[in-house]
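Complex 427.
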Amino acid sequence: MDRIRIRGGRQLKGEIVVSGSKNACLPAMAAALLTDKPLVLKNVPRLADIATMMQLLRQHGVEIEAAPGENGHAHGTRLTLKAGKITSTTAPYDIVRKMRASVLVLGPLLAREGEARVSLPGGCSIGARPVDLHIAGLKAMGARIDIDGGYIVARAPKGLTGARFTFPKVSVGATENLVMAAALAKGTTVIDNAAREPEIIDLAECLTKMGVPIAGIGSETLTIEGVEQLKPATHVVIPDRIEAGTYAMAIAMTSGDVELLGGRLDLMEAAAQSLRAAGVVLEKTNRGFRVRRANGELHGVDVMTEPYPGFPTDLQAQMMALMTRADGASMITETIFESRFMHVPELMRMGANVTIHHESALVRGVPKLRGAEVMATDLRASVSLAIAGLAAEGETTLHRVYHLDRGYERLEEKLAACGAEIERLKG
Ligand code: EPZ
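Predicted structure with EPZ bound:
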């Protein structure tokens, strides 16, 4: 298994290209199941999770061609997806267990084929992560759903019917599943308390291009008019706000100065506000935005994760890594996932001072971190340890790099190009 070795203490300087958003791309790829017409996605990041979604879609019968992208930076890939015929309506355990986002095929398969069997994803290292909201929404549209042999078995032989559904809790994935299912339902679907993440907006815009009328995009009420047929479409995936935020924190951690090309500050206002309060300067530029440390100390700031437009849970671990070196204390509260503090013991092995009280972590800044052998149990926890390693004294070796590869495209190359001493050790 690959490892990443970092020698800390180098300031990051230069430019980093922000890749296309993983979490916008995954549902857009699943949307290809809704139609036999081609869907072209541009600015697709080269990531393990994207490869897993390609594997899943191919076994449903989707033909996928990958070609080098045209986003001006020659990094993104262009995918052409064509679901001429659905050859299987089962999403097997072997693929779903690798990636929970596989559950996003449930809505489109059910809407198009009238049936779907999707393995229950089960819990994961950040929490129990049930799928009850996905199921409740589809049931409201007339689906019959049972759990059998570890699978969600959904049927709607006469198709789905538009309905009004209010989510009792905000869910990104369940909103996406329902929006996609509604695209082929008879009549109008109104979703209240919908998630408003930029990735949902991106999916809704992609579906609009595919010929699905959607009103209220970006608000908590989405109104979707079901159609009989979708159209061929081309969609450019938005830049990854979580990747951009992660690099912003890494730059701040090393007192660096880097322009994030293609980065969009408007998609990460809550995180930008917290970083500014901590003493980090973020300035919009013509090509993205620039991040540098204001003169002086990094200050401790309190952060609470919330659904968009609040501070994203996917940046919580990285912010905590930054706060380990701040002047003063920082209270970091995680309200989305119940066990998303798995990075804390590893950060403490590097010298961080963190105390967990239920859903909050009190981080007291320390004058220095020390490199160590560390490993993480999920993608964002993993990258938080890399951020700590960039500022730690000595050498940090990060194990289980496959977590990083799920969501960060060429992380070590991007950081090394800005002066970090970082390398991948193969095998
Ligand atoms: C998406 O996961 C993201 N994944 C996650 O990113 C992200 O952390 C999360 O949204 C929150 O922003 C993708 O977009 C592929 P949710 P999702 O449904 O859709 C509970 C990363 O690192 N819930 O919004 O699975 C759930 O347990 C990943 O890139 C139910 O109770 O998240 C959680 O507490 C990790 N019942 C809360 O809602 C349900 O049926 C929010 O989860 C569904 C969710």
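The chain is about 30% helix and 25% strand.
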